[in-house]
Amino acid sequence: MNPMVSPPIDLATEKRHLGELAPMVIKVALAIGVLGIAGTAWLAYGAHDGGERFYRSYLVAFVYFLSLSLGALFFVVLQHLTHSGWSVVLRRMAEAVAANLPVLAVLALPVLFGLHHLYHWSDPEVVAGDHLLQGKAGYLNVRFFLIRMAIYFAVWAGLSRYYFRTSLRQDETGDPGLTLKMERLSGPAIVLYAVTQTFASFDLLMSLDAHWFSTIYGVYFFAGSILGFFAMLPIIFYLLQRSGRLTHSVTTEHFHDMGKLAFAFTVFWAYIAFSQFMLIWYSNMPEETGWYLRRQQGQWAWVSLTLLFGHFVLPFLALISRYPKRRRGMIVVPTMWILLMHWLDIYWLVMPEASEGRVPFSLLDLTCFLALGGVFVAAAAHRMRRRALVCEKDPRVAESLRFENA
Amino acid sequence: MSTALIDNTYKDPAVRPTLVLGGQDFTSITEKVCGIVEAPKPPRIWYICLAVAAGLTGVLFAMVGYLIVTGVGVWGLNIPVGWAFDITNFVFWVGIGHAGTLISAILFLFRQKWRTSINRSAEAMTIFAVVCAGLFPAIHVGRVWLLYWVFPVPNQMSLWPNFRSPLLWDVFAVSTYMTVSLMFWFMGMIPDIATLRDRATTRVRRIVYGLLSLGWRGSNRQWHRYERAYLMLAALATPLVLSVHSVVSFDFAVSQVPGWHTTIFPPYFVAGAIFSGMAMVVTLLVPARQLFGLKEFITLHHLNNMNKLVLATGSMVGFAYGIEFFISWYSGNPFERFAFMNRALGPYWWAYWIMVICNVFVPQVFWSKKARTNLWIMTIVCILVNVGMWFERFVIIVTSLSRDYLPSSWGYFKPTWVDILTMAGSFGLFLTLFLLFLRYLPMIAMAEIKSVMPQAGLEHGAHAGHGQYWGEIPHQHEHQFDELNGVKR
Question: Omega into B80 within 30° of 0, i.e. cis?
């Protein structure tokens, strides 16, 4: 045998199920989740503000995990749209994360209960005294908002379930026709995704300040979501490999590519963030600048600067070289940092609307994060407890196992 | 080789399409591509096209000369519409260039091996489009002889350009773009030019191609450095795909003109640029592949992929139109609302609807594979896309300027014959340059395309994974890898 030829990777000898790890992960995640829920309940009950603070913290945590699942759904659909081969061994985990979207539909309920606390356009008295909001009432009203939410989550749940289930079916049958089916749906799917994702970001986040508007907002939220997902993906595989799973099939090349994508979307996020900021700053029109002024005054100025350096400059420098991207232990450090910054980004989108000049960090932010994070991880682990962690009979799996970054 | 080509657009997920058809091997590729350059005479139709294009270029120079001698008053623009055909043409041509950079840089980073058949000509198109683009702001300034003032050159008047103006950022963005694109294009061509030099039968060719090939010997070390440099340039050109048209969009978006100032402009301009550029690549390559018999290289699979990109970027543009319209209503700003209603229903309604129909509705036929692989349909669609994208810039620029805040200073722009002939002339210049490129430079990247053929053996042995996957992807569970790797169990 040619010594330069690496031996073929054989999926059959690979540990590719969660197995005994699943119950443990589920237990720990649920324990954290329950702890988070209990803490949240205790703190929210003790706050005596009618839940005001709770709903905001909850919205941040909810949108954060929603964005990760939406990023995963985009990744899955995009791989089918481009007939991608390299990513086949990564796709199952993305499918599993995206399949949390039906769970998130349930977790959206507290946001809906807190509608009046979060969105001032939902208060008829406020609208009656606000000429601008009257003009928008055809779109920004409670009933239409609920209808839209139902549509978004129906689309997301439908797509994520379809892709997860069809892919699982292929594990059993090995039918390449299923790949064709998934590819055929990917075109319409990406259109639906673009529309729902954009308007969901308008509804959930932009309408927190219903006077303000920005046409790029949907792209901004999209960029953050995708970056969050690409930051999460290498961490998932790092942890799986640490536990002895997929040790051969997810290669250095895959980590390198995940790192490249995290790098690319770090820059893309910065590009979109800069475009929005620069154009509003330069034009200096009062109906637009208020949103940024709130984020530049008082303590928020420090958060904005943290985002500039922490969400862009640091990850940019950390990920630009080839060296860390090809080392599993190294790549996860900047990506964990990006995940943290992505949370801060969402926080920065939500919180200044209710707290001018002061960054209202509170334990509730942490407990809501733990509550939703625990449920999020437990749901994904539960879903994967008996499933293969790779799309093992995808017709292109061999290509994925063998590709190299030349 | 004139036998019917197999349909390599056939979709079997377990089979990667063959990228070069017709049983070509390395020798036949060199013969074919160099043959176009070395043939004693190009096809007759090439002469006809060149005559028309060169004639139009003459018209362009005549118009520019007339403009310089007489003044910008020969154009139809005047207050309030101070930018019209000139800036429309500028944005249009810069946009056209973007597809070339996308194909050569971004698709390279994405390991899209099919790009090897089309990247050379697409990059050439980029250069020529930027040449046409650069012309318009230059002649628009009025006193062309003072154009060097746009550069921050130290001078006796201590006169500096306004660094806060996006028009100055344009100067930097477009000149950077031109420089990097030119380097990328030329560097990529060196091995192929060396091939032409080595095959040269005349003294002139030996000298010219010899000079251009910069002493290329094809040694291992040269190839190694070449490939590293190529990767670096691709990485440098990738942000340019986004930045150049973003800066162009700043020209409008930093202002307070309703219809110009909107935050989605940067990514939306980039999508539109790639959209129009990709349509232009298809428009140019369909006739070129027929004319020079390159159907085996630029196959239906390639055209299918490009048309998918046209559909994707066109849908992004259409979506952005929708978002702009929605937010103009949602903003509650009466000026914004007016600007968009005025586009659709005002005096320039015809331009708006040409834009919407050509850019949003027409490309939707590409959802059908039949349309994506039919040469006539794709040519017509892509020409319409180019018409639509020209009108998009016209709509943005002219309708917004013609009616802004003060109804008393509204106006209506009408192009003069000089406007129209200058625009037509720029197409002449673009086509002249492109036709000369087709005849005198290797229009297909020979060295690159050979690496994506089975004969390159890049899917075997030590090179496993470096090359294009072609043909059937081995099935994992059957231990077929052993066979591929030559392992005996």
Answer: yes
Contact B489, B472 (CB under 8 A): no
Put simply, the answer to whether B464 touches A1 (Cβ < 8 Å) is no
φ, ψ at B420 (rounded to 5°)? -65, -45
Residue B16 sits at φ, ψ, to 5 deg, of: -90, 135
- DSSP secondary structure code for residue A388 in this structure: B
Q: Taking the alpha carbons of A331, B241, B385, B349 in that order, is the dihedral positive or negative?
A: positive
Would you give the end-to-end CA distance of chain B in angstroms? 40
Quick check: ipTM above 0.90? yes
The structure tokens listed for B85 are 């055909």
Query: What whole-number distance in Å separates Cα of residue A325 and Cα of residue A256?
Result: 5
Which domain covers residue A202, as residue numbers?
15-211+378-398
Contact A12 B477 (CB under 8 A): yes
Measure the CA–CA gap between B471 and A202, rounded to whole angstroms: 45
CA distances from A9 to A401, B416, B466, B482 (A): 7, 69, 16, 10
Say how many CB pairs under 8 Å bridge A and B.
144
Residues A265 and A332 both lie in one domain? yes
The Cα–Cα gap between A341 and B253 comes to: 29
Residue A281 lies in a domain: yes
Per-residue pLDDT tens listing for chain A (406 residues) = 344 455 567 788 889 999 999 999 999 999 999 999 999 999 998 888 878 899 999 999 999 999 999 999 999 999 999 999 899 999 999 999 999 999 999 999 999 999 999 999 999 999 999 999 999 999 999 999 999 999 999 999 999 999 999 999 999 998 999 999 999 999 999 999 999 999 999 999 999 999 999 999 999 999 999 999 999 999 999 999 999 999 989 999 999 999 999 999 999 999 999 999 999 999 999 999 999 999 999 999 999 999 999 999 999 999 999 999 999 999 999 999 999 999 999 999 999 999 999 999 999 999 999 999 999 999 999 999 999 999 989 999 888 888 888 6
Mutation target for A interface from B163, B227, B475, B476: give the one with most A CBs within 10 A.
B476
Does A4 contact B461 at a Cβ distance shorter than 8 Å?
A: yes
Compute the distance between CA of residue A250 and CA of residue A92 in angstroms, rounded to an integer: 12
Indicate the burial class of B219 (C-beta count within 10 angstroms; 0-12, 13-18, 19 or more): exposed
Architecture of domain B39-155+163-452: Up-down Bundle (1.20)
d(CA B6, CA B21): 8
Instruction: Determine, for residues A179 and B13 on separate chains, whether the beta-carbon distance falls below 8 Å.
Output: yes
Tally the domains of chain A: 2
Amino acid identity for residue B323 in this structure: I
